[in-house]
């Protein structure tokens, strides 16, 4: 009797019959076709660290958003939130792959084996103090209104940064940004529509949206404070100084909240960029345990 190929056989044959790591994305080279040469005058360590900053923000926020799957208030919104998380996960993959391509993996405590792609090792096997994400993305979700406000704020900040990164001297960052701005424009618009709906809805939805804004605004304290790495790379035409996007972000957020009949909370004073330097609260440790647990339990698993 002739062997009937299954979908699993097809997947296996599509990759030459070689086993693939079970938990990661190791199918196609994520930076294929893009010039990965580090620009002249740029320290590869700085470039890799900056990619970790942007990539970790995307990865951590994606994980927070996936916590709403099966919990969102509407089926349609559940799909939308999951799609936003997938967009961010895609951005994270590209950015972590770029970090690995310039050697960051070798300088981290990540598990480095031939069977695990760089971006996966960086996602699953770094400890919390090696992550460079901000408190804005790491903070717990709160209720749906708070999650929506946080997504609005995070998408507004990230869109402003990636819009400017389209002109980066690093071809990889420029390519990632060119793709990401379209995704982030949708994320910002989607969140803004929900904030308008909640803020200008019922008394209860208004109350929750206002409480969400009050909870999220303090998380902006370190978002516009540049690290030394960002300052050096911005001067080299590779990165964006976060202070450069402050007024644009303020203008967008003020307009959305005002139209939603919400009061704009007090803007926090600038603070040291603790998260960018690897200093995090316990909430990130708990989140990473959820994200990394299975991969760490079975680090050599393949399919």
TrEMBL record:
InterPro entries on file: Aromatic_CoA_ox/epox, Ferritin-like, Ferritin-like_SF, PaaA_PaaC, PaaC
Pfam families: PaaA_PaaC
GO biological process annotation, one example: phenylacetate catabolic process
Lineage: superkingdom: Bacteria
GO terms under cellular component: cytosol
This protein's name: Ring-1,2-phenylacetyl-CoA epoxidase subunit PaaC
Organism ancestry: Bacteria, Bacillati, Actinomycetota, Actinomycetes, Geodermatophilales
């Amino acid at each position: 009797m002739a062997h009937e190929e299954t979908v699993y056989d097809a997947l296996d044959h599509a990759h030459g019959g070689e086993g693939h790591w079970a938990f990661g994305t190791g199918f196609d080279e994520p930076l294929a076709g893009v010039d990965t040469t580090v620009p002249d005058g740029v320290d590869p360590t700085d470039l890799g660290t900056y990619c970790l900053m942007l990539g970790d923000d995307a990865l951590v926020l994606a994980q927070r958003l996936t916590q709403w799957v099966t919990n969102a208030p509407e089926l349609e919104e559940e799909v939308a939130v999951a799609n936003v998380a997938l967009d961010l996960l895609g951005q994270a993959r590209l950015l972590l792959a770029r970090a690995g391509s310039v050697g960051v993996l070798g300088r981290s405590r990540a598990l480095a084996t031939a069977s695990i792609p760089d971006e996966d090792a960086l996602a699953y096997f770094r400890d919390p103090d090696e992550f460079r994400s901000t408190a804005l993305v790491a903070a717990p979700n709160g209720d749906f209104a708070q999650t929506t406000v946080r997504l609005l704020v995070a998408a507004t900040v990230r869109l402003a940064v990636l819009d400017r990164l389209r002109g980066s001297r690093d071809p990889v960052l420029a390519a990632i940004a060119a793709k990401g701005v379209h995704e982030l424009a949708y994320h910002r618009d989607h969140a803004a529509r929900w904030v308008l709906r909640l803020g200008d809805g019922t008394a209860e939805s208004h109350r929750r949206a206002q409480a969400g804004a009050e909870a999220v605004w303090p998380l902006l304290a370190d978002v516009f404070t540049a690290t030394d790495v960002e300052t050096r790379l911005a001067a080299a035409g590779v990165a964006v100084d976060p202070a450069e996007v402050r007024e644009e972000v303020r203008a967008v957020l003020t307009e959305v909240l005002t139209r939603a009949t919400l009061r704009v909370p007090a803007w926090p004073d600038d603070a040291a960029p603790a998260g960018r330097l690897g200093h995090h609260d316990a909430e990130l440790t708990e989140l990473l345990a959820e994200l990394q647990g299975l991969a760490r339990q079975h680090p050599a698993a393949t399919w």
